[in-house]
């Protein structure tokens, strides 16, 4: 039985074409999780298993590929795909494998196959418009005639080109649609230094309003953003610190619903890897607020205290404390203290008064109640 488990991941990774050093490469990513199914901590490592004609050098794993897993713990891994310009267009695939360091040959789990397509590089039409035949006839008539004809062509046809629209600051997909509609060929060039949101056009060549022939190539510089750490499951303070120190992200705290995690545990994140964010941009972290221990009066009756705590979604443990005076079975203390925040479903201790006499005290066994258990108080004869 493998110690690790890899849940189902998307069966296909989407790649996009980018330009590096005037050559076209394809890039993409796929994210998967590995869970330690055992009840003890383990050291695990992930490896990428290229399938068919795929090459190992096309793939890399973000962060450390070897990590320490707590009992029942989960780690998220992102596999980056980057194919070279010489890669043949077609469909390729890969799998990922998680192995236990202490027994890699026998203790491992594999993911389903993930496929991806490498598209053929865009074809750029380099053909120029042919000059009308009468231009050449005019040439034979002399320089003056040629000059007159050229002036006429410019005046009546506007030079024969189409103005390139201004697409700077638009999302790449919208910019590409505009340029394609204007019958230009679009090539993407990465802009890793921009502080704009990922996917935003930061520059274009030729520039806006420049006239160019139909089918001409327009290169768009596109902001890539920076990688964001996955901080889901961490305490908010630690997660905020990691994001601020990493790339200077601003952190927005969003209060979610109490779901059973420790108060202030991060349960959601936007953006979440493999998505990227603008350098210095905002990352939204949703936290589990937990629930507050009700501020009930103490002392009180057991029935009142149990009803109040169960109504707040909390469990109860009833224990006794010996006292020489006071009402027997009355709630005299509560832990954690009233107003403290705890995980939804957590157990709160109710301490009741047990009458003591000289040299003796009636000890009661603890009583455990889930939030949904029915409780009817029956006095104990002491």
List the total number of helices.
Answer: 5
Shape: elongated
In whole angstroms, the N-to-C terminal distance is 54 Å
Rg over CA atoms: 34 Å
Biggest β-sheet: count, sense, barrel?
6 strands, mixed
Tell me the number of strands. 28
Q: Strand portion, in percent?
A: 35-45%
Stretches where pLDDT is under 50 for at least 5 consecutive residues are: 133-140, 142-158
Structural class: mainly beta
Helix content: 10-25%
The oligomerization state is single chain
Mean pLDDT: 85
What can you see in these coordinates?
The protein is mainly beta and 382 residues long. Helices cover 14% and strands 39% of the residues. The chain is built from five helices and 28 strands. The strands form eight sheets. Strands 2, 5, 7, 9, 10 and 11 form a six-stranded mixed β-sheet that branches. Strands 1, 3, 4, 6 and 8 form a five-stranded antiparallel β-sheet that branches. Strands 23, 24, 26, 27 and 28 form a five-stranded mixed β-sheet that branches. The model is unreliable at 133-140 and 142-158 (pLDDT under 50).
Secondary structure elements and pairings:
Blueprint: E1 4-5, E2 12-13, E3 16-20, E4 23-36, E5 42-51, E6 59-61, E7 66-69, E8 74-83, E9 90-100, E10 108-110, E11 114-118, H1 133-140, H2 143-157, E12 162-163, H3 172-181, E13 185-191, E14 201-205, E15 211-212, E16 217-223, E17 226-227, H4 236-247, E18 250-255, E19 265-270, E20 276-277, E21 282-288, E22 291-292, H5 302-311, E23 315-323, E24 331-335, E25 341-342, E26 347-357, E27 360-361, E28 367-369
């Amino acid at each position: 039985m493998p110690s690790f488990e890899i849940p189902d991941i998307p069966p296909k990774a989407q790649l996009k074409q980018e330009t590096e050093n005037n050559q076209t490469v394809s890039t993409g990513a796929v994210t998967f999780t590995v869970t330690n199914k055992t009840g003890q901590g383990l050291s695990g490592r992930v490896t990428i298993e290229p399938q068919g004609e795929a090459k190992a050098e096309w793939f890399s794993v973000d962060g450390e590929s070897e990590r320490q897993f707590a009992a029942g713990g989960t780690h998220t891994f992102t596999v980056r795909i980057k194919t070279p310009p010489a890669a043949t267009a077609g469909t390729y695939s890969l799998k990922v494998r998680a192995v236990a360091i202490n027994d890699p040959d026998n203790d491992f789990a594999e993911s389903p196959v993930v496929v991806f397509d490498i598209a053929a590089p865009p074809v750029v039409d380099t053909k120029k418009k042919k000059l009308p035949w009468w231009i050449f006839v005019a040439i034979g008539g002399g320089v003056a005639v040629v000059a007159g004809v050229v002036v006429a062509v410019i005046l009546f046809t506007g030079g024969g080109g189409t103005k390139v629209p201004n697409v700077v600051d638009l999302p790449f997909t919208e910019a590409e649609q505009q340029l394609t509609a204007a019958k230009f060929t679009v090539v993407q060039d990465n802009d890793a230094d921009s502080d704009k949101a990922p996917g935003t056009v930061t520059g274009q060549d030729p520039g806006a309003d420049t006239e160019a022939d139909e089918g001409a190539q327009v290169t768009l510089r596109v902001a890539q953003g920076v990688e964001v750490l996955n901080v889901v499951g961490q305490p908010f303070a630690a997660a905020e610190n990691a994001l601020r120190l990493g790339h200077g992200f601003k952190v927005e705290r969003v209060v979610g619903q109490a779901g059973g995690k420790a108060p202030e545990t991060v349960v959601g994140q936007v953006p979440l890897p493999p998505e990227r964010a603008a350098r210095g941009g905002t990352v939204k972290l949703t936290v589990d607020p937990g629930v507050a221990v009700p501020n009930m009066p103490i002392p009180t009756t057991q029935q009142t205290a149990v009803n109040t705590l169960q109504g707040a979604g909390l469990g109860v443990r009833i224990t006794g404390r010996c006292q020489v005076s006071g009402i027997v079975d009355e709630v005299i203390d509560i832990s954690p203290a009233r107003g403290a925040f705890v995980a939804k479903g957590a157990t709160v201790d109710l301490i009741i008064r047990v009458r003591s006499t000289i040299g003796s005290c009636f000890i009661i066994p603890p009583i455990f109640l889930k939030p949904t258990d029915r409780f009817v108080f029956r006095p104990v004869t002491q």
